[in-house]
Amino acid sequence: MAEESLISQQKLKEFGADYIKILALLLLQSGKNASGSLIRSLNYKIVGEAEQINIEILSNNYLQWVDKGRRRGTYPPIKPLINWTKIKGLPIGAAYGTQKNIFKFGIKPTNVIQRTIRAIETSNEEQKKYEDEVVNNIINNINLKYKNK
Questions:
Q1: Are 103 and 117 within one domain?
Q2: Which of 10, 27, 56, 58 is the one with CA 20 to 30 A from 115?
């Protein structure tokens, strides 16, 4: 007999949506919303592999730089900086100064991915939302196993 999953597809989808909502809020709180493009790009995908379920976070590729920062000594691409200066109402030349500044000093990480996970782990509301289903499914699986012996 195939074992049932401890959490339903619906709850996995709710978790993915909750994760994205909290991630977006933390990006806003970190001041990482110049154009809104990064937050609008956030999404998730549930991927089942053998006995493991993964939730992949989908976003514009620069979320990695927002999250982990950027070490000094490397130039970021200029085109996104030019777009950023336009959004901020700065002259286009400011993009080149910003690029040089990032080369010299890097970008401080926000650690927004890990902070999102921590927010979910420490939220009683988020924990309770999924706890009941998991506990009920564990009990049902135990009962089924005892009935089959």
A1: no
A2: 10
